[in-house]
TrEMBL record:
Hydantoinase A/oxoprolinase domain ranges (all copies): 193-395
Lineage start: Bacteria, Bacillati, Bacillota, Bacilli, Bacillales
GO molecular function: hydrolase activity
Ranges in coiled-coil conformation: none
SUPFAM superfamilies associated with the record: Actin-like ATPase domain (SSF53067)
Gene3D superfamilies recorded: 3.30.420.40
Name of the molecule in the record: Hydantoinase/oxoprolinase family protein
InterPro entries: ATPase_NBD, Hydant_A_N, Hydantoinase_A, Oxoprolinase-like
Source organism of this protein record: Listeria monocytogenes
Domain called Hydantoinase/oxoprolinase N-terminal: residue spans: 3-172
Any Pfam family matching the protein: Hydantoinase_A
Length: 516
């Protein structure tokens, strides 16, 4: 039995095959194609043809892709969205799409309606929904919107109104129109949750094309019975049907795949991970085997959101970063030769000095022709290497939560440029399969479920609230494709809400389970 993992990065598309013992059989690395689908198809074909495995024994296929991220950043292939906010007149002072990039609003149609609805923080009704007004609005949107986002005030506490409006939408616009409800997408905070819900609604067409394309590519290779999963941004997987409902969860899944792959390769559950690509490096933190999540609002394509994202920082340091000297000072990046490194770097006969050239000059890496960098003065190369170490140390310090030394796992194709000794790092782990850690992470991941809600502990016992949240999280994991009996709780977070009577607490429970 075999698993296939594919991860699409900005520079390269990686594919791996693992056996039933999670051992790596083969890997390939290819340049990412402009349309992405071609790169996925070609990498899949190559990894299968080079191993010659029996296609009927491929039981699972996993894909981590940047398509949803690219669609938002490039404003391409997005659906026309209608936004129904249940919160009039209480929220009329701040309208939907506030502070959005103007071009983005235009791509999404910019249609919205403030209507009655919403709850107080303690679950009391703010105002009732106006069914007639909602039906009238939907009738005017027919043929002009391709999906609908429904956002209710404090729906993270109580989502009855959102669910009722979802039924009305299906009656007016048909059962096939995608509907994104905010209580399933974002966290506490109306505007950020609304923004995340709108983006989720805008991505339905993108995720449909992605999932259909992956299914088609597998069929072309004779893989017809494999379970198919997409990677999500907490380092776990979700079924195709679940991904089609929540495409926004695929955003930033690349770094989390690398973090999970690093955990597997190094055999560590708690460490810092540095994923060095061709242009940038991503630094994340492993906590109990999973990527640490960010607690801050996250900017996605110029839009402020609050759905869960990994705690990652990126720096302009990669294997193709350009090295320059100006007035005695050495600078590295942020510009890079990227995927053209095999043509433009000095070690490959090019004319641009890169960080890889520096590593080869000092004997730290065996790439290309070392004679082509022999002319670089040793003192210059050592200064540049010190600059690489300083940039790495600064980034690691920003991610630390204590002053102690940490373990560091290096992955990614550009990791050869990182020195073996870094201040504040107790031990460094490298693995020969580090360049394809992202695809390995995609293929070994589990299924997760998460539930977050505000509970009023004066109205419900804490233990009862914990049990309720855990049950809801387990249901989410099952929907995403986990084996029910294998699900276990991995994280519980309780945050008391200041200035709210009744001991109001935001409760978040996360569970993980094995693949079906």
């Amino acid at each position: 039995m075999y698993k296939i993992g594919i991860d699409v990065g900005g520079t390269n598309t990686d594919a791996v095959i693992l056996d039933e013992n999670q051992q790596l059989i083969h890997s390939v690395k290819m340049p990412t194609s402009e349309d992405i689908e071609t790169g996925i198809t070609e990498s899949l074909h190559r990894v299968l043809s080079e191993t010659g495995i029996d296609r009927s024994k491929v039981t699972h296929a996993m894909l981590g892709t940047t398509q949803c991220t690219n669609a938002i950043v490039e404003r391409k292939k997005l659906a026309k969205v209608g936004v129904l906010r249940l919160g009039y007149p209480a929220t009329a002072s701040v309208l939907p799409y506030t502070a959005w990039p103007e071009d983005m609003v235009g791509f999404l149609s910019g249609k919205y309606k403030l209507t009655g609805g919403g709850y107080e923080y303690d679950g009391q009704v703010l105002s009732e929904i106006n069914e007639a007004e909602i039906r009238e609005t939907l009738a005017s949107w027919k043929g002009e919107v391709e999906s609908v986002a429904v956002v209710g005030v404090f729906s993270s506490l109580k989502n009855d109104q959102e669910l009722a409006v979802q039924k009305i939408i299906e009656e007016e616009l048909g059962a096939n129109i995608p509907v994104s409800i905010s209580s399933s997408v974002g966290s506490v905070g109306l505007i950020e949750r609304e923004n995340a819900t709108i983006l989720n609604a805008a991505l339905f067409k993108v995720i449909a094309a992605t999932s259909d394309g992956f299914e088609k590519a597998l069929e072309q290779e004779g893989i017809e019975h494999a379970e198919i999963y997409l990677c999500q941004n907490d380092g776990t997987l979700m079924s195709l049907n679940y991904a089609r409902q929540f495409p926004i969860l695929t955003i930033a899944c690349g770094p989390t795949n690398s973090i999970r792959g690093a955990s597997y390769l190094a055999g560590l559950k708690d460490a810092m991970v540095l994923d060095v690509g061709g242009t940038t490096s991503d630094i994340g933190v492993l906590t109990d085997g999973f990527p640490r999540e960010s607690s801050l609002a996250v900017d996605v394509g110029g839009v402020r959101t609050n759905f869960r994202m990994p705690d990652i920082i990126s720096i302009g340091l990669g294997g193709g970063s350009i090295v320059r000297e100006k007035d005695g000072d050495i600078t590295i990046g942020p510009d890079s030769v990227g995927y053209r490194i095999s043509e433009e770097a000095l070690v490959f006969g090019g004319k641009t000095m890169t960080t890889t050239d520096i590593a080869v000059r000092l004997g730290m890496a065996e790439i290309g022709n070392p004679e082509l960098v022999a002319h670089i003065p040793t003192d210059f190369a050592e200064k540049a290497y010190k600059k690489i170490a300083d940039m790495t140390e600064d980034a690691i310090d920003k991610m630390k939560t204590s002053s102690g030394s940490v373990s560091l796992v290096l992955v990614g194709g550009g990791s050869v440029i990182i020195p073996d000794e870094i201040s504040g790092v107790a031990q460094i782990f490298r693995d020969k399969n580090g360049p394809v850690a992202n695809a390995i992470g995609a293929s070994i991941s589990q299924i997760s479920g998460q539930y977050e809600q505000i509970y009023i502990y004066s109205q419900i016992e804490r233990e009862e609230a914990l049990q309720d949240a855990e049950q809801k999280a387990r249901e989410q994991a099952t929907l995403a494709g986990a084996v029910t009996d294998s699900i276990e709780v991995v994280e519980v977070e309780e945050i008391p809400l200041a200035y709210h009577p009744g001991n109001a607490t935001r409760l978040r429970v996360k569970v993980v389970g094995n693949l079906v």
